[in-house]
Input
Amino acid sequence: MKTPTQGTLTTDPVEEWHDLRRKWPTLADYSALVRLSHRVERLSATGALADQFVPVRLAVLSGATVDFLLPALRATLLLTGLRPSLHVTAYNQFVPTLLHPDDALVSFGPQVTLVVNTVHHIQEWPELGASLERVEAIVDEVCRSLLDPCAAFYERTGSEIVVNNFHPPPDRAIMNLGVKTPGDRTNFVRRVNVALGDRAPRYVHVNDVASLAEMRGLDRWFDSRYWFLAKQPVSFDCVADYCRSVAAMVGALLGCTRKCLVVDLDNTMWGGIIGDDGLSGIQIGEGSPEGEAFKAFQLYLRELKQRGVLLAVCSKNDERVARSPFTDHPEMVLRLDDFVAFIANWSPKSENIRAIAAELDLPLEAIVFVDDNPAERDEVARTLPEVGVPELPDDPAEFSRAIDSGRYFEIASLTSEDVSRTNAYRSRRAGRAELNHATDIRAYLKSLEMTASIRPFDDVSFERIVQLTNKTNQFNLTTRRVVRAEVERMASDPRWLTRAVRLKDRFGDHGLISVFFGHVDGADLLADAWLMSCRVLNRGVEQLLFNNVIAAARMADVKRVVGYYKPTDRNSIVKDHYQKLGFTRDGDMNGVERWTVLVAEAVHLEPCIAYDDLCPTD
Amino acid sequence: MPHRLTRTEILEQVSQIVGDTIDVEGLALQPGMAASDVAGWDSLAHVQIMVAIERAFGIRFRTGEMTSIANVGELVKRIEVRLAGQT
Output
């Protein structure tokens, strides 16, 4: 295939890839989007990049024409870190397909299914004069006509499902009075959107087309001409927006989400330079328009923190001076304890970001860096291409929108671990500080006063199990990814042994931090997955879990436990995991190491963790 | 005062756009050619070509005319009319 960009390339594919990734959040021109999509597709197959994608089986159930969306969607998914296999079903058959998926679709086994439905698929509309009661009955019917088929499909396939909600119709005969008229079509569509969000079950994820259309303006979002001509669901100028939104949702379901936002200080968190202008000279808070803009940005950062994004500071400054606004300026929204790391020095920012990532045990792919200075952004983007570096406009009033439009932090659900994450990381750092003083490691571990619970998977934990399994890259023996339905199936299938570990210590509750699942095959227990959050590395959790798995294996008459280590470029910290637990390496297959231990010969290990809720059998 | 595009210049740009869309390098369309004379210019490509032309020239076609243009010469003429209407 030939594209105009083909002949001009002498650049390094990795560099070009990251350049495309930087461009993507603001791309709008459809022709350019298609052209660059071909480029993304080709680059993703080159040796330097080919291994870094999480595979995903994606079904697309068309309501409208999807031919114009698919190349851009594929490219956007690739840039998100996912390599999709697509299964696209017949035009406008999404309801019968959801109700009765054919064998080809069922055996394809979609992990995520996209339903490309539009406002034109709403079958029943209220008459203009309909009573509120009647309108609500129709709202109910419209929601059911979409969600019932989704329920049937989920039952059959276990696929997560993404549906669109609805932008309002492009015209409104009754004008402003529509606000007080439940039967008005715009009024009705708004009610349907609210009801759809309220009623969508956990496995149905709503792509918020209504809000995308609002952001862009309906005139721009929907072009009636191309609907009539080609049943194109979204105007060509907004195809990129649509794809970015959907790809971020699919990414969130498969764990390709960023976790930490590293911010600069001078002219990013406040106006001016604290070292030159001093506490009374910087612009922050009420009193100046720019100060208000920076305050609004800090409020946005606080909101990110409250939903689980970790905040860190990386500033070229004297540390004491850099801290002073957080402790001494009354208008600052953010305080020192909102951050999990604070680095102010004169080293290159890329070095500091690498240090922050190491300190938090996060991969560089989990990090987004925000700085008003283009030179700093460039240095970080070039040195650490894995880090997300949004192009920041030069006006603080627009910072938050620029970060939003990169869709770095899309999540499919909010768990209690998300909400308390900053505290968990901070207490872990306090724990590390103690480690520096403790000479005897066992004495240190004892001093942490750890208690753990180990339970089979249960429904209160499913969400977190899926999230942890899909996000963990380092302490992860097989990097096996799962969707919720698989986890539920394992939990209810007696052939599977499932374990979820929670851990507390005197600094705080770490929540659910380790997952094991394996299945019994004859006299063997095959360990399909063993993973742990690096927050609790070197605490003895794996020894505790090993004891528990061996006990469960014994109860189930299993003679041998078989573990696998599938090396990736991130999980070398567990390369000796099975050896340390007393397993013997017995053969490799396709680059996967196989380790075994006889249950009768397994050694009982002695970690320094009290059991507060342990469950050796199912 | 911006330069008014000649019919030949419009034809060249249209050739470029069509060539980019259907992945043919150096495509030289002639006014008498219809979509059916150009391999790859099918109904899906046609929509993409309309989108790209609208964007490149900053014009909007009417819903009906997008499927009723008989040949390349007529397409160029329509673009010319639209461009003239803007000034």
Q: What stands out?
A: The interface with chain A takes residues 17, 20-21, 23-25, 43-44, 47-48, 50-52, 55-56, 60-63, 66-67 of chain B (CB under 8 Å).
